[in-house]
Amino acid sequence: MKHPARKRFGQHFLVDQPTIAAIIAAIAPEPDDTIVEIGPGSGALTDSLLMMGKKLHVIEIDRDLAADLQTKYPRLSLHVCDALKFDYAQFKKKLRIVGNLPYNISTPLLFQLERFAASIRDINVMLQKEVVDRMVAAPADSNYSRLSVMLQYRFAMEKLFEIGPQSFMPRPRVESAMVRLVPLRPVPWPARDEASFARVVSAAFMQRRKTLRNALRKYLNEAELTAIGIDPQSRAQELSVAQFVAIADYLGTRNI
Description:
7-stranded mixed sheet; 2 domains; 256 residues; alpha/beta; elongated; Rossmann fold; 9 strands; 19% strand; Helicase, Ruva Protein, domain 3; two-stranded antiparallel ribbon
């Protein structure tokens, strides 16, 4: 490998060909797709996508890797920038986001992509297995978290398959997994005020071991929780997305 992996960018290059083939098969690119690959690295997925004749945009923050990619793939649309600051709404067609995401920025990047859900057809990305398990977890699952609720509000998600450390160079210390996110259109439980919804979810999970009566006492009391159909003795990890929306909407009627 010409360039060593850089820790500050969270780089672990995908090198296992069967894994690469499985990812491409899961993405199932079509002729008219507009694809944006985040963190192409040494071009493991890039090479396969371009061989299939796709119009491809890639986002690479590492300037040395970007220079190599541009030399190797002259027809590539290369964006040398931070994926957290990229404008995903600039394209006319619905985007297909793919990539082996840097694990050190995976959560903020997912929240960033959520903001552009209207411009996205689907997201097929590799992440740390632990993060994927939290993303797709159902209420009452020990992995159910703020991340679960916030992403499930906007996306239907499916864990596709797991990937071992041996598929990368250098090997990460964690297991990985491939996940697909598809924007919900329309959002099934639209919050009247999404900022209020986000605050409620954050407050509830900040003290996840406490009952909602205590975790949300700043916002509403036990009688109010009961009135909107929420058990005050329940905990954050037991509530559905719809129930969190119900709490946020109730607060909106009180201008909180």
